[in-house]
Amino acid sequence: MNTQGILNQYWRLILVMLLPARYVKWLGVLTLAVLIPGAILNVFGHYIVLYIGSAFSLLLVMMVGMLVPGQMLALRSSKQFQYMADLRYPLFFIALGFWLLVSFWLSITLTLLNPKEFSFYSTFALITMTLTCVAVLFAVVGSYMQTAQGFVPLFVWLVFFSAKSTDLFSTEYVPSYWFITLMLWTGMFIWWFRWQPQKYLINFMTLSAAEMQRQQANNVQAITSVFSAIPNTLAGSLLVGVSDGIQAWLKRELGQLVFFLLLLMFMLYWVRQTPANAASMMVSIYVFIYICVRGGIIFQSFFRNLYRLWINSNYSREEMLAYFEKRYFLMLVVAMVPVTLVFVLINHYLLNDLLGLFKGAYVLFIGFLFSSLAFYVGLFVYIKSAASFVLLNWISPIVNLGLIGIMVYLNILWRPNPSHEHASYLWFSGALLMLILLGRVWVQSSWKNVNFYRVKN
Amino acid sequence: MSACVSLKNLQRQFSRVTVLNGINAEVLPGQVIALLGKNGAGKTTLLETILGFGFPSAGEAKLWQLDATQIAGETKQRIGFVPQQDELLPSLTGSDHLKLFKSFRPHWNQLLVDKLIAEWAIPMTMATGKMSVGQRQKLSILLALAHEPELLILDEPVASLDPIARRQFLQQLVDIAADENRAVIFSTHIVSDVERVANQVWMLREGVLAYQGGLDELKESVARVTLLAAEKFPEKLDLPDLINQKIQGNSAQLTFINWSAAREQQLSNQFAAKIDVQYLSLEDIFLEMNP
Known about the structure:
The complex is a heterodimer. In chain A, 29% of the residues are buried. In chain A, helix 13 runs antiparallel to helix 14. The mean pLDDT of chain A is 85. By secondary structure, chain A is mostly helical. Chain A contains 16 helices and no strands. Chain B is an alpha/beta fold. Chain B contains ten helices and 14 strands. In chain B, the strands form three sheets. In chain B, strands 6-7-8-3-9-10 form a six-stranded mixed sheet, with helices on both faces. A four-stranded antiparallel sheet of chain B has the order 2-1-4-5, covered by helices on one side. In chain B, strand 1 and strand 2 form a beta hairpin. In chain B, helix 4 runs antiparallel to helix 5. The two termini of chain B are 37 Å apart. The model of chain B has no long low-confidence stretch (mean pLDDT 88). Chains A and B meet through helix 1, helix 3 and helix 4 of A and strand 6, helix 3 and helix 5 of B.
């Protein structure tokens, strides 16, 4: 094949590897649209636009960086693409080129932003080694266990904080960094050419939201089946999607608690690297998000299974709503209790009361209120959108983000120096409570005419 | 004429389960082979072994005299493949896929591509992840046909297609079959399609090829014989080439393979019975051979 043909092949593969999804292309356009005027304005002494553009480009690089290993695996493991051509060489060299370029660009940026703290020589070596580790881990871990890929970015955080605390940016380590990088890429090369994919490894990050939800639901079902046991009631089990028996509940909550503690351990490592006020803020955000996510997950399974409850239970529409509310709030409280107890102990004995009594109680309270509001917002979506799962996953986070924005604006909880003015906390909670009550009244009035749907997306 | 595919005593085992057991077959240019078999009979495993995705446990699978697992890019360019479930990239559009495939194919029939896109109404600007299963299947078939391969292997290609697209696709297969330099192997459950396009049938049962040969020969070689005798038949008959029997008193319905007209008189004499011979449709043959 002539040179033009080969260049065309590489160009097509680069597009498929680096810009595989529409959202990445748009982010790329947006980044350029901010970076170019930023660069021009910088000449005239206005640097803020350039900084924003740099932040966008960092986000873009992170996204593409996460996509590249997944695309490599997908292209290599697809039987259709295997019969198109042997893509192993081009894919490997495109990935290698991409990661080296990103390392170079990040090092240049850090060196320019803070020349006193970062020397290009050591920064480039350390970043190249770190990103190589991430890329290799992403590809190798993903080839054997795709769901474990999500834990790889945690590795970056750990290395970053360790680097700051143990002076890994020192120039004395530079030869070792290059040696490790070389070894990693050599290992990757050998593995890549020996690896025989057993099945098609779809790149989860390129799936549509609906398809991703479907895959996630399948994964959750596979995991929850492990935690199953004899059901207590048919209606309850139908709503949850798995057994609602006490034994099953205990197993599930134990699993959730272990997950909560694992993430908290990671948080604790992080907390030690940050000032106390920021640490307190991060921990309160973590507990809050945990409660909201648990509430969201409970509601999502209810949302999907509502139609099954209608046909398989003796409840009328009104009775169903009452039962639905009771089960949701019961499960939410049950989910919050073990986590709260464990967290209170950890906060007191390990974190030296990092979160004060008022703050701790308010986080739990506000988490409960957010989850309650999310419940009625979710039912609103169910009624108004013919049970669109995609809309639910757009509207609920938007409502939550809007409320969090108001909290930040009012200086409640999530600022380095939050307000100690209890009145503002009271007003905010009061308004939230009013919204919940209004939502409940609306749902109750609309419920008698509700249509039940098989949730498809 | 040399064979595109040659299988000799092919065996494939997964753990302790034998999926393919001693398969001997050849595929010649101009043949359109329908691979029939029940769910789990080993159709996909056979097709994927022919394509070199996995190593045989014993025996050999060759593509143009080359070991199937060792074929290089040049040989792959002579093959078109449509898997049972498409393995396309979900965020890429149909056009993106076409451009990528085109850049890797030395031979590309753009006229055929344009014609099929129009006929099959494939939404080329839509991301494949958002397409319906049938639309993705059409795109997969298009990608497999565009470089006009010498050997086309399709694993249940019409399962997700609507009747119109199925008819158009089969017409396309007939056109390909008309070119005597090409060969097609396709697995399917839709037996009526086989009668429309295939000239050869491979019937896979429990990992072995229970029948391989011409479609017409198959139809002529399987017969359902009804015997009506004066006396009662024994509960079970033990006759050569008998694959199925239903006995009720003095009436027996027997299905034979390797049937020949000479056996009609022989059976009539043996049981002193009135005999009626019926030749079966392919669907009935499939059901009789896969009880």
